[in-house]
Amino acid sequence: MSSTIKVCMGSSCFARGNSKNLQLIQKxxxxxxxxxxxxxxxxxxxxxxxxxPNITIDEVEYNNMDTGTLYDILEKxxxxxxxxxx
Length: 86
Ligand code: FES
Prior knowledge:
The chain is α+β, with helices and mostly antiparallel strands. FE2/S2 (inorganic) cluster binds next to helix 1. The site of FE2/S2 (inorganic) cluster has 11 residues, from helix 1.
């Protein structure tokens, strides 16, 4: 199953957190070997700057993203937790 992550690269979102969020996503993809599963793309400003930083994962838009919240969302999305068997 593949996923698409779209990161708003408009100046407002980028300056307010998406530069760090983008780094986090890239690191997460690398560490979890998700390169083949995740398509990571940048978006231009979509006129929702006041709600930004904005990130869309599989057509679900997330607003006011910081790295902590983003990490939790990535974990829920890709690291289907619940089963803790190692
Ligand atoms: S810069 Fe992201 S919505 Fe405007």
